[in-house]
Design brief:
7 helices, Wax_synthase, transmembrane, O-acyltransferase activity, membrane, transmembrane helix
């Protein structure tokens, strides 16, 4: 059995465990303590991949060590996207992947587009953002740029530059 299959099986077992804990115990510190082994497992699993699999390690670390861990802790405290009304596959996907299940409720002031927004304007916005991203990638890969220009295009401050502080009035 490969290491990836073993990790997948452990992740599914952890999802089953958290689902059982959620349906058996009320929200609170008891539930958080009972899910502590899952949190420890999610922190431990990404280190089992080879250093050559950098992208896999980064993605697994982000999904498990960050998103899934916070979802388990939030579930323990009675918050977050994990619900007992979900089926087991829905629960596992909501826990192990960086997705949020739509509950059908919209909050006031949400960033979702209004019903009046046309799909053509959404498509135009998507095309414009894709074009801008393509242009930035082209400039970064095709030209020999100074460090300052490269950092500006990356969107990060260059090393050694102190963040500016607003002046007191």
């Amino acid at each position: 059995m490969s290491i990836a299959a073993a990790i997948s099986g452990l992740c599914l077992a952890a999802a089953c465990w958290t689902r059982c804990i959620q349906s058996s115990f009320p929200a609170g510190w008891t539930r958080v303590l009972l899910t502590a082994p899952v949190v420890a497992l999610f922190q431990y699993l990404p280190v089992h991949f080879q250093a050559e699999d950098v992208l896999l390690v980064v993605l697994l670390s982000a999904c498990l060590s960050w998103w899934a861990t916070f979802k388990v802790i939030a579930m323990g405290l009675g918050r977050g996207p994990l619900r007992t009304s979900m089926t087991m596959p829905q629960y596992a996907v909501a826990l192990l992947l960086p997705v949020t299940v739509d509950t059908g409720k919209r909050r006031c002031g949400s960033s979702l587009p209004s019903d009046g927004m046309q799909s053509s304007s959404l498509l135009l916005s998507f095309i414009a953002k894709g074009g801008l991203l393509s242009a930035i990638v082209y400039v970064l890969t095709s030209f020999s740029l100074s460090d300052m220009t490269r950092h500006l295009l990356y969107g990060v401050p260059p090393l050694g530059s102190a963040p500016s502080r607003p002046s007191a009035m």
